[in-house]
Batch of 4 targets.
Target 1
Amino acid sequence: MRFERRHGWLLVGVAAWNVLTYAMFTRNLWSAHADGEDRPTGYWVAHTVLIVVNLAIAVVLGRLGVRALRGRVSESPVNR
């Protein structure tokens, strides 16, 4: 698959959306914990893992998007 600038913008947009929504989710989760919301430990752990994984995905998508915008994403050898 060949990445074009429009793919780069899409990937950067999705990465930015992930960061924005999971930053808000983190803030809300932190507030709930600070307010003493009574939840099982598994709830806090599961949601923390969800946040970390989705932010990692955002980093990967963002880097791919920036590389596509700079024109440095090449085709795989199979598709040449």
Note: Residues 5-74 form one domain.
Target 2
Amino acid sequence: MNWLFLVLAGLLEVGWAVGLKYTEGFTKPVPSVLTAVSMAGSVYLLSLALRDIPLGTAYGIWVGIGAVGAAIAGMVLFKEPASTLRIVSIVLVVAGIVGLKLSST
């Protein structure tokens, strides 16, 4: 169950990272509230996952999911460049996430 909490926390991190773009400096109320709720939910779920998952593993995976998700969201939603180097870098982060998961079983 803690791994599910960790994955959900990472997905909420993607949500709040994307949400920050829509808040326009927290000047738009609805996106600002949704972003703040996503932030709080992400940290709460991370704290639940940390009950049984080592800190370095959990935090690395949480950040990795957020980084990969935000990079992909940026390319899809905001037409950010999808260069070969960027894609290879995302794959390397995913490999790191998998490596952390495999090393903690």
Note: The chain has a mean pLDDT of 96.
Target 3
Amino acid sequence: MRILTVAQREIKLGFRNSWTYSFLALLSIFTITILLLQSGVATTEGYTDITGTVMNMILYLLPLITLLLGSFSVAVEKEDGHWGLLSTYPISTYRFLWGKWIGLITILLTMLLFSFGLAGIITVLFNQQLSIDTLIFFWLFSSILAIVYVSIALLIGALAKNRWQALIGGIGIWFLTIVIWSLLMISTLSHLPSYKMIQPTLQVLTILNPAEFVRVFSIMRIGAGSAFGADYDQWITWATGSYGVVIFCGICIGWIVASIYIGGFIWNRSDKNGRA
């Protein structure tokens, strides 16, 4: 069985699933609301307080939807016995997870395209000021978040044995990377023995959290990197440079590849232990 075959199967199942349309309705209402809020600002070019608020609102909802949708997709295959049947075909867990990733990305990007497209149309109908650049920026920001978090969701699904474990794992990762990450960073930095360790530690912690990394890079790309202070001066240099996007994509790809291959490795180990 090929990767694209798994992806096509995932897309068909995904668009038949009522959860997909529930998330689509929630995401559409949410997107329309925040873009109408953004459009009320006199200037929508560059970074404003409202832009930061909208980005934070996206960070709170989208990763949670992605984590639940992705982890449930894998956990259901195990719990309902579908994987036992699929494993009789010549397909490895790695190919299966990559196929899942492609299928889920297609579903999520379609949802985001529909939500932001509908929001853009509604803001025009309500005669609100919203630049195309702002709409594209939020869509790209959301899409990159979804692409990275789907791989993490598949890792959670590979670890989980059933829906409940997937639910707990998804909410746990969301709570860690979105809700309490700032507090953990402050606590970690405050316990460092030397001031010289603050800058490198802060940068490493930022890379370790995909949501924070995407947020910081996105804000720097629109010219508001000074908001993060002197500790990120080096990041502003490379993020806004000619190779900034290449480095950013390389780190994101590293997250995606590592998550899927770690998930496949653990899944293989658990299958071998189960047979033993």
Note: The two ends are 26 Å apart (CA to CA).
Target 4
Amino acid sequence: MRTTRLEAFSDGVIAILITIMVLEMKVPHGVELSVLWPLFPVFLSYVLSFIYVGIYWNNHHHMLHTCRKVTGGILWANLHLLFWLSLIPFATGWVGENHFTASPTALYGFVLLMSAIAYFILQQTIIASQGPDSVLKKAVGNDWKGKISPVIYFSAMVIAYLEPWLSMALYVIAALMWFVPDRRIEHVLHE
């Protein structure tokens, strides 16, 4: 199977996730700007989650361009990633509605951690299926961002029970690391 069908399905799921997240932001009753203030934590969690989903979409897109064919293992690894990404709207809503308190903030980190692990599994499955000269293997190289991100998410989960806002700051730092599109795959594909 070629990657186009897998990409289209994944793109559709990701588009739905973003739609669900924005629909969770309820329109306030009232016409004064002050009625928006209680929604600020919900909006902040939405912005961060939108960025994370965008990062996954962008990197997923690049990663799939290294595939020559899609195997059953890749299909299942991709579904595994989409499962964890599908929990982002729930975690986003819970953390925003509860103003970044400990347990929702820790759960948010858990979903990010599991998404990172699932992405790593998909990446390794693609590398294994493409053989010893895998373009993706050559592109990811040392992958320091891929190694440090799960450490940040796990640390932030623990810190959430001490200082939830510090956890959120760590989630922002991890997102900023990935915000600039990863050019390693582009460089290898254009060699």
Note: The mean pLDDT is 92.
